[in-house]
Design goal:
By secondary structure, the protein is mainly α. It has helices at about 10-15, 20-30, 35-40, 45-55, 65-85, 90-100, 125-150, 190-215, 235-245, 250-265, 270-275, 300-310, 315-325, 350-355, 365-375, 380-390, and strands at about 155-160, 180, 220-225, 225-230. A hairpin with a 2-residue loop joins strand 3 (about 220-225) and strand 4.
């Protein structure tokens, strides 16, 4: 006998609302016929349970507000699609109006995106959401393992700790000064904050494919005063570049990093939509599990991440890459972000960046770019030297 069938509805509601995440609710829905019957027979309670899990205020539980917003926006897209299929009128324009509020600029302002899932949302759509969130967790963990594995193979060097730096190596094939080798350290499994950053980027890619499939060509009302036209020929990168304009570079770079991993994983951009929604996942079961004993940040580390958790989306990796590209003393000013994408630096916590050897990059001056320069292979570095020389700046002299 299913033990959940013995519980009164309010007790079952409270138990399900206290689950740690949506994939766990999905597993319980599939494992317990009584839980499935309860959820599918009470879509208003189902919606409330999903909201309660997402909004958990316990540390390293639930979803950050901006990720919650993406989930609820996706639910509104599916609801509109369902009404279309039943030939019921729905305000598609309201959905397109809301799209711009996924941008960082609007994260702390009132938005037309619902703050809760509508109680009238069909149970079938909520079940679809649970299945997607479970699927995305597999992809999040797979991308994490792939990118961190690549980063652990890098041969990073740090500058010696001295005030005046001298090029003791001379101008050799690498055009790099003599550094101190760093041995990358694996600091453990995926942390909650890293998981949320990855999850957000996957959700925005899903939203792109859903909108393109339903609407094709469409316009988005003014983003910073200018109407945005979306073509059915737009790629995910060009789509989000139009929507996430201005100061949303971190968000765009996270999406681009995830797309690059997906391109490799599924064998081409044309297969991404299928991998995200329906095709079998060629992933070991270990990707589906969390590791609570290793995901907790220290109080000090948590403080450094709180700005992102409260919607700001700037990460230490993003700051590191941005400084390397804009600092007048950095020979990496011209480097394309794509060089760093295979290693996922835009997502990682301070602890992981430190273990991989990039903590040095947060120091001022030459330390900022030196560790990052070892991500570049010889061909990449030669291009940097050539580009800088054409502009009267010699990175070998730094």
């Amino acid at each position: 006998m299913d033990p959940f069938g013995r519980l009164p509805w309010f007790a079952l509601h409270n138990i399900l609302s206290a689950l740690p995440d949506l994939p766990t609710l999905h597993s319980l829905h599939n494992a317990s016929p009584d839980v499935a019957a309860f959820l599918q027979g009470n879509n208003d309670l189902f919606a409330h349970i999903v909201d309660s899990i997402m909004e958990s205020t316990a540390r390293e539980r639930g979803l950050p507000p901006i990720v919650q917003r993406a989930v609820r926006y996706l639910v509104t897209i599916w609801t509109a699609q369902s009404k279309r299929e039943r030939q019921q009128q729905d305000s598609d324009q309201n959905i397109l109006n809301s799209l711009r509020y996924l941008a960082e600029k609007y994260s702390n302002h009132p938005t037309p995106i619902p703050t809760t899932i509508s109680p009238s949302t069909p149970a079938a759509i909520l079940c679809r959401l649970l299945a997607l969130m479970t699927r995305l967790r597999c992809l999040v963990h797979a991308s994490f393992h792939d990118m961190v594995s690549k980063a652990l193979q890098l041969k990073i060097e740090h500058l010696p700790r001295k005030a005046a730096y001298i090029n003791t190596r001379g101008v050799g094939p690498a055009h790099r000064p003599q550094g101190v080798p760093h041995t990358p350290v694996d600091v453990g499994p995926l942390m909650w904050i890293e998981e949320q950053r990855l999850l957000g980027s996957f959700l925005w890619i899903v939203i792109f494919y859903e909108l393109r499939r339903i609407y094709g060509d469409f316009t988005v009302p003014p983003v910073r005063g200018e109407t945005v036209y979306i073509s059915s020929l737009d790629t995910a990168e060009t789509f989000w570049k139009k929507i996430l304009c201005g100061d949303n570079n971190t968000q765009r770079e996270q999406i681009a990093t995830t797309l690059q991993w997906l391109d490799i994983k599924c064998g081409g951009r044309e297969n991404i939509s299928s991998l995200l929604s329906s095709s079998p996942l060629p992933l070991p079961n270990t990707y589906q599990h969390r590791y609570p004993e290793s995901t907790t940040l220290s109080d000090k580390e948590w403080e450094t991440e709180e700005e992102w958790i409260s919607n700001a989306f700037s990460t230490h990796g993003a700051l590191c890459l941005w400084e390397a590209r804009v600092s007048p003393i950095s020979p990496l000013r011209c480097v394309d972000y794509a060089v760093f994408r295979p290693y996922g630096l835009i997502f990682w916590s301070v602890r992981r960046m430190d273990g991989l050897g990039f903590r040095e990059a947060f120091d001022a001056g030459h330390h900022m770019w030196f560790a990052l320069s070892f991500v570049l292979n010889q061909e990449d570095w030669d291009e940097v030297v050539k580009w800088q020389a054409e502009r009267g700046f010699d990175p070998r002299a730094v």
